[in-house]
Design goal:
alpha/beta; Ubiquitin-like (UB roll); 5 domains; six-stranded antiparallel sheet; five-stranded mixed sheet; 15 helices; 20 strands; elongated
């Protein structure tokens, strides 16, 4: 990497300019934005985004909001790092500025030495040499005193990046290559899960050691004690518990990203947060897991719920990134667990959860565009997958199709809000009336070339069969098809 160049990681560039990471990756792929070893030069960033006012965006805005408003303690702590962590981050940043200042002082000495040597040359040279040296010294003086054309915006960019590095530290996971940011007082584990990256963990409170990972580079600080004892050889090799540490600088970790087969079935006692009536036929049951035993699952999986002897199987509609919150959609059928939800469950009632199960999960190493298709209340697992994809921020574009009949598009406003908020997200509500084959053909008509697409579809077998056959005929790779039969 050339000396004196200021390079930024792609994820931080995305935050600085207010774009998604996938949008920046697309610009790099199309040749609109140049990189060096996967990093973006500050001058290149200034060239490509001439209209961005750094001081009005991102973390600067958040800092100003904190100053201007009387935030509650909980929100304040969620936004800012702990004072000890903040002090260490400021110290590390101060060391960088000190090194930069030292280098500038050294350059100043070099230029002074150069001036003296040029003066020596003029004493022994002729008139032509004197004129040449005088011209060179004049040029050097003019260039050093002249402010670069982008100096003001470059200063704002550097200041913005410095604030961002204090407020949110970037973490890269190897060998998967996933990236996420740690904000506030989050541990490495909390931040990874919030970003939709399912790293291995168990108790999440320092007892089991399941979240053990290896620190490859960067600095971390222990913010929670742990009872699990790491061996001396493990410590020497960089081993840490993700649930107990937060990063001080940008870090690189060696950690395993879990798949569906890696997550064990769990039995968790949850509490009812609220029973939300979506319409006459459907309710969203919102549950809260204990702090010491949150549900570990992947988007698209299902669980068994039971209360007072009544039992039912439901897909999780919430995202794994939503901490202890669990949402399921329950259809009214006047029997079993459904009847309990509509007629008996109240806030703080206990509901036992067993799971998760299922292989209808996100392909985490894919960077292709995504098509999501839901039939009736099979929208529940699709909703979870969509939110997971949003948290990952890796898909080039996302398209959601929801086919509904009597039950209706019961969370239509949410889907429209996604489409309004995201430039790379489209949503279409479809009627069930034309029939499975016709609806499938209508969806695929919007995508004549599916060679660079992944499809996640949930619904009855006949509909999925028609959709899969049509998609494969339009170039979809068999590895790009992910279907879940929901009766």
């Amino acid at each position: 990497m050339p000396a004196m160049a200021h390079y930024l990681p792609v994820s931080r560039v995305a935050r600085l300019v207010g774009q998604s990471r996938s949008a920046i990756q697309r610009m790099i792929h199309d040749g609109e934005l140049s990189t060096f070893d996967g990093m973006v030069d500050m001058n290149e960033l200034l060239r490509v985004f001439p209209g961005v006012q750094w001081e009005d965006d991102g973390e600067y805005k958040r800092v100003e909001e904190i100053k201007a408003k009387a935030f509650g303690k909980r929100v304040f702590e969620r936004t800012l790092p702990d004072k000890a962590v903040l002090a260490e981050r400021l110290y590390e940043l101060g060391k960088e500025f000190a090194a930069a200042k030292s280098l500038l002082l050294h350059y100043d000495e070099v230029f002074r030495f150069l001036g003296d040597k040029l003066d020596d040359v003029t004493e022994t040279g002729g008139a032509a040499t004197v004129d040449a040296v005088a011209g060179l010294k004049h040029w050097l003086k003019r260039e050093l005193e002249a402010a670069p054309s982008e100096a003001e915006r470059a200063e704002a960019l550097l200041a913005q990046e410095s604030v961002m590095r204090i407020m949110s530290v970037q973490v890269t996971v190897q060998p998967s290559g996933h990236e996420f940011f740690v904000e506030g007082n989050d541990t490495l584990l909390e931040a990874a899960l919030r970003a939709g990256i399912p790293l291995d963990y168990g108790c999440s409170n320092g007892n089991c050691g399941e979240c053990k990972a290896r620190l490859l580079s960067g600095q971390v600080k222990k913010v929670h004690p742990h009872d699990f004892v790491l061996k001396d050889v493990e410590k020497e090799n960089g081993a840490i518990l993700l649930c107990s540490y937060t990063p001080i600088t940008d870090v690189v970790l060696e950690a395993h990203v879990a798949g569906a087969d890696d997550i064990p079935e769990q039995e968790i006692p949850t509490k009812v947060k609220v029973v939300e009536l979506l319409n006459d036929q459907l309710a969203a049951l919102h549950l809260t897991a204990p702090r010491s035993k949150r549900l570990r699952f992947l988007a698209g999986q299902h669980v068994t719920l039971s209360a007072d002897g009544a039992e039912g199987e439901y897909y999780v509609a919430s995202c794994p990134c939503e901490d202890r919150h669990i949402e399921v959609h329950v259809r009214r059928d006047n029997r079993g667990f459904s009847r309990k939800v509509f007629d008996g469950l109240r806030k703080e009632d206990g509901v036992s959860l067993l799971g998760p199960r299922g292989q209808f999960v996100m392909k985490l190493d894919s960077r292709r565009s995504l098509i999501f298709v839901a039939w009736e209340e099979s929208f529940a697992p699709i909703k979870s997958l969509v939110q997971h994809a949003m948290s990952l921020e890796t898909a080039d574009s996302m398209h959601l199709y929801w086919v509904a009949g009597e039950a209706g598009h019961y969370q239509d406003n949410l889907c429209r809000a996604w489409a309004d908020a995201l430039d790379n997200f489209t949503y279409q509500a479809l009627s069930i009336e034309p029939g499975a084959a016709t609806v499938a053909e209508g969806i695929l008509a919007h995508h004549p070339d599916l060679s660079h697409i992944d499809i996640y579809a949930a619904g009855p077998a006949a509909f999925l069969k028609a959709l899969e056959a049509g998609a494969l005929a339009r170039g979809l790779s068999p590895l790009g098809w992910h279907g879940e039969i929901v009766l």
